[in-house]
Amino acid sequence: MIITKMKPLDEIEKMIEPYEKIFLLGCNSCAAVCRTGGEEQIKEFYKKFSGKKKITGSIVAETPCDMRTLRADLRLVRKAVEESDAILVFACGVGVQTVAALTGKIVIPALNTLFSGQVERIGVYHELCKFCGDCMLYETVGICPIAICPVMSVNGPCEYVVDGKCTLLPGRECVWYLILDRAKSLGLLDLALRYRESRRYHGALSLKVKEE
Amino acid sequence: MGLADVISKKMAIVIGIRVPRTLKELDDIWNSLKGLDDKFDALTFSKITPSSIDPLASSVILLQRTPIEILYQLECKKKNKSAVMSEVLTLINVGIRSVVVSTGTFFQEEFDAGASVVSDVDVTELVRIMKTLERGKRDIFGQVVDFDGKLFVGLRVNPNNENLEPLLHSIKKFREVGADFIQLMPSLNINSIKRIAEFAKSQGLAVFSTVCLVPSIEHAESLSRRYPGFTPPPEFLEELKSGRADEANLSQISAMISEFKKIGMSGCIIDGAGCEDLLRKVITEV
To answer: Are A162 and B185 an interchain contact pair (Cβ–Cβ within 8 Å)?
Structure first.
């Protein structure tokens, strides 16, 4: 799940200020779950700004990051989009860029994209993946040290651990204490103790379109 | 004589001074230690403020003035592979051979829990990089490095942990990647220190312990950030409050050093960063 957070209203207002006619585009996937870009948020925004700006229309796209479905969704609101000076997008950065690519319009992000996270409940998310492109979760028994450890140690606890607790992120267990504990109980200690090099962010550094 | 040679003969004494913020400060610190060269075997720079002169530049300047042995603290924090490699190449080219690798120094005010500290390499990998360079005469990019010397490389271990098993696993890994020694961070947990030291020695690693000078209550607070888990005992803090800092430090350091000798430590780092006047008194006496 891509975790997003609404930008401060005054920041959004400043960005939309030069434009008279605005189209609102939400996301029915991740942003809807985070309650930052679903039906409710679009309605709320509509109410707040319809007196100040001309809202040409709105849509909560199924998955704005997917060119195929977004293209189909945009067909339904083509006229309203064409009439607008800018599109205010309530989706992650990928969604915003997909909207820009498909419409050729000025796009304004209403959200800040934070990380890929696990949802515990609305408002409580845990960042568990850094998209390194070289997953080591088998070796680290399902716990990612790159995403969870503040110093990204891939070989064991660092010197900032006191009584098994991370002192850089107070209140948290050291991820390596957790990994080794779980590995021991699963009989995979040797695997977890293997020397490994830091990840090279193959995925993150590649700007190419991958055709699998 | 390098640290590796010193420890084959006796317990080495390394003094820790602060990384200065100006060249004048570096001169002042160094001048205050003049005439005491025979009391210690090496010097290490510790960062005690978020900004200072580059520690490597401080080391180079000092080396230009005096042929001293430097134990360089090489940090992984906020460096990519290229930056790490440049630092390692600079080290070996200016003649620094003893290096302790650490994750980095964190200051409460600069550490933002919301932003991860990006490190391209962790401490274990950094030791491996250095030892691969020593053996293979090539850097991580495959370029030939003109270097014939030996590197004496170690890592920090925090003894302030009840469950030592994960740390012992790490120590084994440190040895596997070629480390020569470990540096135990300051701790009053002698049992933990002993157990780690015995295990490290059984793996063929030399062990350096660390003691730090504590001239004031404020200094004690800043030390607990640099060395997590370290807190001076209450009776020691009482002595500080009653204005007996010099005596309290002298007796504490003497007691710890004699304990370390009993344990068979290869060396002891006396960290006097930020209180170099007291450091002078202590190394004169101890």
So the answer is: no
